[in-house]
Amino acid sequence: MSEPIDRLPQTRKSYQALTFERPESSPLALFRQWYDDAAERVSEPNAMTVSTLDEWGPSSRIVLLKGIDERGLMFFTDYDSAKGRQLSADPRVAVNFPWQDMERQIRIRGLAEVAAPDESDAYFAVRPRGSQIAASVSKQSQPVTDRDRMQAEYDAAVGELEGRDVPRPEHWGGFRVRVFEIEFWQGQRNRFHDRWVFRRADGSHDPADLDDASAWTTTRLYP
To answer: Measured between alpha carbons, how far is 120 from 210 in angstroms, rounded to an integer?
Structure first.
């Protein structure tokens, strides 16, 4: 049971101490190791907070990671949504994996780029049909009068597309987050946590190959 809100200042968990020494692998290898651990202990390990920027400031939401390789992290969305428009105007992006059940998190900063059309086509093709139809109907982030109108538009699309493949909408597809900084955070006792950050070896904010250990320096940070 959650603590009443007036007790929040006293609400705390004592983290367990796990050894986390200087990483010897590439950021990609360590991410995969941590993700495999999370897949066994976290209900939705690919859920990640994605933060973007607009003229007012930062905006965050949870999306699902759908792929990672040496080029970066992939997720999919409506390009006309708030995050799609924000990333088109300013590609700077932050990502966080909050694996509280493991007393871990991964923090990432990078630049977002639109995925190639064939990558978006390939993922759209394996989505459940209902999700394909929803993507084709939804005007993500736009106002709508009520749920009934949304449902009517969806039901109409179901009828129109009966017996046919659902084409990927041009306004829907992938973003790849090209990484220039990635931090691995491990909870420890007394809030004296372990933090190791990979940064570009040349000191730049240009994205680098996540599987090339020589492209990165590792630094331990105070908690």
So the answer is: 21
Q: Quote the CA–CA distance of 84 and 91 in Å, as a whole number.
A: 10
Burial class (CB in 10 A: 0-12, 13-18, 19+), 79: buried
Question: What is the three-class DSSP state of 136?
Answer: helix
Q: Which residues pair with 214 in a beta bridge?
A: none
How many Å apart are CA 204 and CA 158, to the nearest integer?
Answer: 49
pTM of the model: 0.88
Q: How far apart are CA 115 and CA 70, in angstroms?
A: 14
Catalytic residue status for 176: no
- 71, 191, 195, 199: the catalytic one is 191
Cα 62–chain centre separation: 7
For 126-165, what is each residue's pLDDT tens digit? Answer: 999 999 999 999 888 888 888 999 899 889 989 999 999 9
